Here is the input.
Amino acid sequence: MPFDQQTSDGGGAKDPAQGQIILDVKNLKKHFPIRRGLLRRVVGQVRAVDDVSFNIRQGETLSLVGESGCGKTTTSRCILRAIEPTAGAIHFRIDQGEPLDLGPMRKRDLRPMRQHMQMIFQDPFSSLNPRMTIMDIIGEPLLVNGMTNLVERRERVQELMGLVQLPAAYINRFPHAFSGGQRQRIGIARALALNPSLIVADEPVSALDVSVQAQIVNLLLELQDRLGLSYLFVAHDLSVVKHVSDRVAVMYVGKIVEIAKTSDLFETPKHPYTEALLSAVPVPDPRARSKRIVLEGDVADPAHPPSGCYFHPRCPHATDRCRSETPTLNETAPDHAVACHRAEELDLRGVTAAA
Amino acid sequence: MPPIPMGEPARPRREPILSVRNLETHFLLDEGVVRAVDGTSFDLFSKQTLGIVGESGCGKSVTARSILGIVESPGKVVGGEVMLRRDGAREMIDLAKLDPKGDRYRAIRGAEIALVFQEPMSSFSAYHTVGNQIIEAIRLHQPLTKKQARNKAIDLLHMVGVPKPDRRIDEYSFELSGGLRQRVMVAMALSSDPRILIADEPTTALDVTTQAQVLDLLRQLQDERDLAIILITHDMGVIAEMADDVVVMYLGKEVENGPVDDIFHNPKHPYTRSLLNSIPSILARPRSKLSTIEGSIPHPYARPPGCPFHPRCTVAIPGLCDSQTPRFLPMGDRQGVSCFLHHGPSGQSMPSGKDTGARHDAV
Here is the structure.
C-alpha cells in the first residue's frame, strides 16, 4: 500500500477551508466574436464566460459543473491561459509568495508559472503521443525544465510511476500497451512531474469504465491528501463531483449561478437550476425512482442570452422581475452564494441519503 | 438449457415477442477469434423494458446488432437463436437463420425492430435534411406518397416533442441541439410502428437534464404504443430508473439476469456486486472513497480461461474458477447467474453461496 489511508475517508479530518488561497479569479470574461460576411465584421459576441469569480484554497477541490456549453471548460482553460481571457484577473500564489496576476502577463513571463499549474485531460487515448514511451511522456516536462541528466530523470519518472501505482517495469512501453485507466495514470504522473500546486482536471474520469473510474477517483483523492494539491475539477457527472469536491460551483450560460460547500449545495440547493440538475441525476437504486424535475427546452444560446436571469425561460418559479432584472451572485448563508431573486423565499429540494 | 423466466411478476404470463437463446457472435480476425458475444439468452415481452448493462467490451452493443443482423464484418453470428414472433403470427421465426442482406430481414429491420443509436450527431447524414431522412425511412416500409410521408414525418416529430415540427423538418441535423437530434432519431425509429425498440446508449452523449427528457419520452412512448424496449447502457443509474428486468454482461458472457429490484438489492454474481459498489452515488458523503474492482477489463484477445471475471474476483475459487467455465443457470424463480459460488461444477445448487447483499441494504 503506497499510501497511508488517512484523511480522505474521514471527510472532515483535514480542513481545506483553513488553507491559504492559492487561486483567486476575479470577473473573468471570455467573449468569442461572431464574424459574418466578406469583411469578417464582428456582428456579435458569444459570452462563453461572463464575469466569473471564485477562489481555491490550498489542498481544496473546487468543481465546476453545468451542462455542455455552460463555459466550464473555457473557464478552466482561461485560468491556464490556454485560451486568452477577454478580461478579468487571475491571481495565483506560488510557494507562499505574493499572488501574481496571470491575466495580463506576457507569454515569456508566464512560462515559469506553468510548472505550478498542470492539466489532466479527459481522453487518455488521444492525449498521449503513441510514438513516445512512458519514460519519454512522463520525462518530457522534466527535460524541458532542465533535468538533462538521463539517470536522474529516469529515477524521477520511476518515482512518479510509483506515485500513481504503475509498475516501474513498464517504463519503456508505449501507450497502446495500456488500458484506459493505466493511460489516465500516465497522464496524472506527467501532470505531477514538476510538483505543481494546482491541477486542472477537465473531465478526468468520464471516458473510463465504471470499475476503472472508481480507481482513478480514489487515486486523485489520495494524491491530494499526500501532496497537498489543489484541484479545479471540471465535470458533468454530479455523482463523481460529490465524491471529490470540497466546494462546487454551478455554471449556466457563462455565469456561476450557485457556489457552496459540497454537502450544502447537494442537500439545500438555493437556485432552481441546481435543483433541477440534481433531480435529473438517475439514482442507482430502483426503489428510489422519484419524481424528477424535467426542464423544458434547451440551454440558452450564449450569443443571444435571454433578458434578465438567463434561466428564466426554463424556470418554474420565474416572475416578472426575473424576466427583466439580472440577478447578482449574493451570499445567502456563510460560504453559500446564489444568483437568484427568489433564493430566500423558495424551498427547493436537494438530494439526501434519506430520499 | 432451460429458459430463464423473466418479466415482472405482477404482469400476466405472456409469450415473449423476442427470445434470444445462446447467441454467439464472433469476430474472425487474423490475430484470432474475438468472442464478442458468447452465449447470451434472454426473453423480451411487449411493454417490457429490458436493460442490458456492462462495461466496454462486454458485448452489449454487438448483441443489439446481432438481433438486427447488422454486425459489421468480420463479425458473424455463429450460433444460437434469435426467435421473433412477428405481428399477429403464432409461430416464431429464427432471425439468426435469415440472410442478413436478404429481403425478409430487411422487411423486419426498421419495421418491427428499430434501433436508436448512441451518437445522434454521426448517425444522421449532414447532406440531407432530417425530414428527408425520416421520409426515406417511412417510404422504405410503407406505400405512401412523398406528400403523405412528409405529413407523417411532421406528425412523428410532433409526437416526440419537437417544437415547430413543420419548420424543423427542413433543417439539417447540425442545426439541432443534442436533445432535439435524439428526439428526431426516436421519431425516425418509430416511423414504421415497430414493436421492439433497441436503444443503444441513447442518452450517453447527452447532459443529465436532456437525458431526463429523453428517458421520459421513451417511457411515454412505451405506454402509448406498448413498445418493448431493449435499453443498452453502461449507466446503472439509467438502468435503475428505466428497466423492468436486467441482463448483466461481462466480456461477452451473460453473468446474471433478473428483475431490476433483485439485481440491485439481491445481486448474486460477484461482478454485479462489485459493479454496484464501485459506482459513485449522488447520495455519497463528500470526499468519500469508492470501493474498486482491481485490475482492468482484459483485452478481448487475451480472455482469461475459466470464468472471465476470475482474475478480478475477490471470492474466486482457486482450481475451479480459473479452469472451468461456469454455466448460466437459474437461481430461484426469476434470477439466473453463471457463477460457481451458486452452482457447483456439475450444475448442482450450492447453498453456501455467500450472500453479502448490495450496498443499499448495507448502508
Summary: Chain A touches chain B through 55 residues (CB under 8 Å). The CA atoms of residues 260 and 335 of chain A lie 6 Å apart. Confidence is low (pLDDT under 50) at residues 1-13 of chain A. The first strand of chain A starts at residue 21 and ends at 36.
